[in-house]
Amino acid sequence: MIALLGEGVPETCMAGTFNSHGWLALVVTIAGLVGAVYSLFMGFQFLREEAIGKRDNRQPPDRHAAKSWLLGVWLLLPSAWFYIEDIFLFRHFGKAACFDQFKYAQELVSRGWIVLVAVLTVLYFGKEIVGKD
Length: 133
Hints:
Layout: H1 2-7, H2 22-55, H3 64-93, H4 99-130
């Protein structure tokens, strides 16, 4: 399978799709992964607070604003990054021979982003969506 993936990739793309400023994409990727882990952790923390509140017969803290902000950040920032990466970074610093690999990588990452947004939406607001508030 790995041999099949590498067959159509031009030699110039094997070291990356950018001539320079590849570090910026790496930094944003690492920040995105840390943010995703944090957002998922907070989702489970919100569920835990609700469970403890039910167990102790007290009202859990209202985290609706925090949930909305976190989900809003995940809706806006990645799409803005895709735009910046495509329009500004790749067009100025990208290797022309690597455009197909760049677009394919963006497509894969965008699918993961959509799944993350869906998971966070269900994790944060699932009970409200279903109506079991």
